[in-house]
Predict the structure.
Amino acid sequence: MKAFDQSSTVVHGLPVQIEAQYRKHKTTGFSGQYHYHDYYELIYCISGEFEVLTYNESHRLSAGDLIFINTNMPHGIDFTTADSEQYYIKFSHSVLFPYGDVSLSRTHFLAVLASFDALEYISSKQLKDIDIGSLFKKVVDNYSSEQYGYEFLMRSGVLEIMTYVFRKRNDDSRNATVFNAVKFPTKEVEDYISENYQTATLAKVAKHFSFSYSYFSKKFLAAFGVPFKKYLTKVRINESMKLLSNSKMSITDIAMAVGFSSSSHFIESFRKLKSMTPAKFRQNAKLV
């Protein structure tokens, strides 16, 4: 995809640094493929549910939630309900930091931005006192209208939305210093994943134990020695081995039963971990 920051969008013959759209996705399922771009993206969920995924993490959004997608991060969207509605805003780095801006606030925001994860998820509960949906709508409406001066209004809207994103991230960073004094509940986390491995995600487990996403991710790695995604995959593969050995379920049904999104993902993960396909493992188990 052409770099958005390199004037990939042109209106009336002039480059535009912000794109804003309303979309209604009528069907369910994965959007088609992972993709990436070197502009930032904000997605706001108006209605329905969908999941934004990278190779290492995922977040499910429902009405009122938003997500910030960092640059050059392969990601995709899995629409879990039909007729879901979203606002999409794509914008370049220069929207946040115009050339020539050397203020102290620029330095601070750059530092906060550098600490962002691939995906920054903010729930509706965290935005309960802010009508963030209206801010998205104003940006989208201005983009559609192209009325005189609409570029300025779009930029001010993006800056206002990003201010709340920055504040949330800044608060998380402060909370992390408090959480450092709290002992990480390794055994409880292990038990929780063991009982909920089919539906567990890093975001869900972090929320269950009242930790921020980024803090929980780092502490999990320190406690278990592997990233959360890798640990969860191992748990699911181990459970699948029991079903492969002791049931007549199909490979696809086993994949779904242990929490994989597709049989192809299951087979690929199984091969990487066990150096053989699930079918080969089942065949070997029958010979024992």
About this structure: The longest strand covers residues 18-25. The chain has a mean pLDDT of 83. The domain at 182-288 is CATH 1.10.10.60 (Arc Repressor Mutant, subunit A). Residues 150-179 form the longest helix (30 residues).
